[in-house]
Write the structure tokens for this entry.
Amino acid sequence: MAKIHVSTTINGEPTEFLCDPADTVLDTLRDTLGLTGSKEGCGSGDCGACSITIDGRLVCSCLVLAAEADGHEIETIEGMAGSDHLHPLQRKFLETAALQCGICTPGFLMAAKSLLEKNPDPTETEVRYWLAGNLCRCTGYDKIVRAVMETAAEMREGAR
Amino acid sequence: MSDIRYLAPQTLDDAVAQYAAAAGAARILAGGTDLLVQMRSGLKKPSTIVDVKKIPELTAIEETADGGFRVGAAVAGAVLEEHPTFGKVWPGVLEGLNLIGSTQIQGRASMGGNLCNGSPAGDSVPALVAAGAVATIAGPDGTRELKVEDVPAGPGKTNLKPGEILVSFTFPARPKGSSDAYLRMIPRTEMDIAVVGVGVSLTLENGTCTAARVGLGAVAPTVLLVHGAAEAIIGTKLDDAAIEKAAAACSAACNPIDDKRGTIAYRTKVAGVLFKRTLAIAAERAGRA
């Protein structure tokens, strides 16, 4: 079966690739494009380690076919930091040790960024519900939730 | 290298033609949150995938001429949640859909996919049944309509004929004093499969229930429309005796499986309890509507 040609935008860069019909976006990011920041935890949409946004919408890249990305805009963890500075969420995760092994971290960061874009002033309950699709086996979540809350507060302060 | 074909038709006519031509081993792709998992596990091995998300009828949310809504079968939960009015008129339908999975899953999962996946525990289905939603289905022989409660045929099975595609759901206009609600019982607090799910839709006029429909999920091979529960409360002021009678009708309608999530006795009892809680929420909302 022929490969499918896909034209997309990844982290602002027009990107073209060839994929098999059954390849997922995660397969293509990691194995074809070398963007290995998105992790494969479960491959079934349970763990959130492969979280990306497509046209601004948070999704699991393991549950999207690469062919579906044609004509759409993808944002991955690789696009989160600026050229010489980390995103405030990334900085806060480091400062507050909101990670240990780090496998879940790209997914948490993408999900948290998506939350703060939609809701700059979330309650702790809202943070916990929004991040319920991201699993972490190290931290017990508390440091992650606090890091997101603190970042949100700082970003609101900075926006004033 | 896989030997799967991926098709993404732009029109419903093309989709019907391509799906019918691909015959038995073709699968419809809406949000993919069930299909891709089933493919990965080897449960489904489609020869052709027909992605329906480029088809306007499957992705539109529109108000109908008579004041109801039509929602495309492939509309994602997060998209329906952002609609300015749908969730105000049908809060129960929306909360059922929004209970499916995580934020990430909500970015993709749809009511059409949930219904066609055929799980008796699909969270969006009981509220769709209670709402009296009608499914529009397109196939090689034309378009037909089917009440949502008539779509499931058993676990993993629907009454869609070969080559037919679920296009959209049509919701009736709502009289003043109408609302709905959905609750599910799960052993955890979030991210689980319903042990019992209850959808209630009703209309109140001066405190008297003039119309009601009750959908029950996860307690039988298909989601059920429980006529007896609705009949027990229609014409009443939702007094305790009427509610008890309706709850008993819900428990009596149960024909559940016994599994690790819930025994037959548990599911049967909880169906009645959960009905009462769901009714209270729907009635409170209807009082404000």
Summary: Strands of chain A lie at 4-10, 13-19, 51-54, 57-60, 73-75.
